[in-house]
Design a protein that fits this description.
Layout (H helix, E strand, L loop, with lengths): L1 H22 L11 E6 L4 E6 L2 E7 L12 E3 L3 E7 L7 E9 L2 E5 L15 E3 L1 H14 L4 E6 L1
Parallel strand pairs: 1-9, 7-8
Antiparallel strand pairs: 1-2, 2-3, 4-9, 5-6, 6-7
């Protein structure tokens, strides 16, 4: 008799824990420990979700008319707290998160140009936003980060 009661108690407890996990998001393993940075070229914004939850929306500057920003889904390939462009006059690129060859998400000092295309193809962010993004990628790891660039 005690065995039947114990089995029912275990089943009820398991059901309650499963319900609580789903209610509070712990059951969403598809987004666990992941960062997705979605860059909209048409809107000139980056929306960052952490574990499936919207966390940041920042203005960006992407490639101007003469310089494209690649479209697609990318993983960070390397990171540098401070990098200097080898192609564009040693231009400073603080908090660089490279995602495709020489293309990176990085800080810019041309803050007034954020919100419109102005770069040589990189994704430029306000220095504070770039530092936050860099720290997120560092904490979660490049393998758990996706940079998705859409029209």
């Amino acid at each position: 008799m005690h065995t039947a009661i114990s089995a029912k108690l275990i089943n009820v407890t398991a059901a309650a824990l499963t319900g609580a996990a789903l209610l509070f998001g712990a059951g969403n393993a598809a987004h666990a420990n992941q960062i997705v940075a979605k860059v909209s070229l048409s809107q000139q914004i980056m929306e960052v979700t952490v574990d499936g939850r919207p966390t940041y929306t920042w203005k960006v500057s992407t490639g101007d008319r003469s310089h494209i920003t690649p479209i697609g889904s990318f993983k960070p390939t390397r990171m540098h707290e401070m990098w200097y462009s080898k192609k564009y006059d040693n231009a400073p690129m603080p908090h660089s998160v490279f995602f495709s060859g020489g293309y990176a998400v990085h800080a810019t000092y041309a803050i007034s140009r954020l919100g419109r295309p102005a770069s040589h193809g990189c994704v430029r962010l306000h220095p504070d936003a770039a530092a936050d993004f860099y720290q997120l990628v560092e904490a979660f790891g490049p393998g758990n980060t996706s940079i998705v660039i859409v029209k």
